[in-house]
Amino acid sequence: MIVVTGATGNVGRALVARLAAEGVPVRALTRDPARAGALPAGAEAVRFAPTAEPAAMAGAFAGATGLFLHLAAGGDHTAALLDAARAGGVRHVVVLSSIIVDHDEAAGHPLYDAHAALEGHVRASGLGWTFLRPGAFSTNARQWAAQIRAGDTVRGPFAKLRLTPVHEDDIAAVAARALLDPAAHTGVAHSVTGPAALTTEEQVRQVGRALGRDLRYVEVAPDEVTPDMFPHIEPEMLPVFLASLGAAVDSDPDLTATVREVTGRPARTFAQWAEEHADDFRAGAA
Questions:
Q1: Where does the NAD(P)-binding domain start and stop, copy by copy (predicted)?
Q2: pTM for the full model?
């Protein structure tokens, strides 16, 4: 059995579907099982809240051999969660980290520090581990959904910023391979990106093509950015986030072939993601 934390998130949900499709029993941990909706056959949703006492969490991991660990799963109790997982039978942990940890010069950035600490807890746990360090998620494009539903102009900073957005299901595919074949991936940090670099304005245009519309990106100065432009970023974190984006404008983004190397097929393009998720940008979408 594989335990998946963050099972209602973009990567976690895709991973549950992939594992279940391969006939692997899955225990999907979530703070609110109602949010999990209908899970595929072979997957069960279990209410989970981390505590400081491993014994109180042991039942969530009983009978499991593998764990997919999301940053938010353990919070301040990550070490206790890992103790509970080991006691329950888990021997291998696949961690959803971040590509920022590849860059030691980023130490001090909140995203770096949080994921480096998570990796540190796992290294210290005595469990076998694989770290997945994805770059920008294609799903981050949903931050433009409200503007796109309202018109043909998207306003935001850094039109020329180049990123290599990765499909959430490609991250899940790499995670699945690491969980199902731990011997081949133990002790490995996989940096995971999409197949090509795109500017912000190019991503917006590709969403427009998927919708059959001519979308335009209008750059605004960083000091004109409002929190609604980045709804997935906590407002107090926005200045640090914008500063890190601005510093990357003239840099080449990380670009890897990990998806192809691990899964045997190429990573999906952002245009493919946009086609698959076009309904998210149409009027009436939640």
A1: 6-182
A2: 0.96
List, in sequence order, the alpha helices (H) in the chain: 10-21, 33-36, 54-57, 71-74, 78-88, 110-124, 145-150, 168-180, 182-185, 200-211, 238-247, 258-263, 270-276
| CATH 3.90.25.10 for the 138-164+195-253+269-281 domain, yes or no | yes
Tens of each residue's pLDDT in the chain, 286 residues: 999 999 989 999 999 999 999 999 999 998 888 877 778 888 999 999 999 999 999 999 999 999 999 999 999 999 999 999 999 999 999 999 999 999 999 999 999 999 999 999 999 999 999 999 999 999 999 999 999 999 999 999 999 999 999 999 999 999 999 999 999 999 999 999 999 999 999 999 999 999 999 999 999 999 999 999 999 899 999 999 999 999 999 999 999 999 999 999 999 999 999 999 999 999 876 6
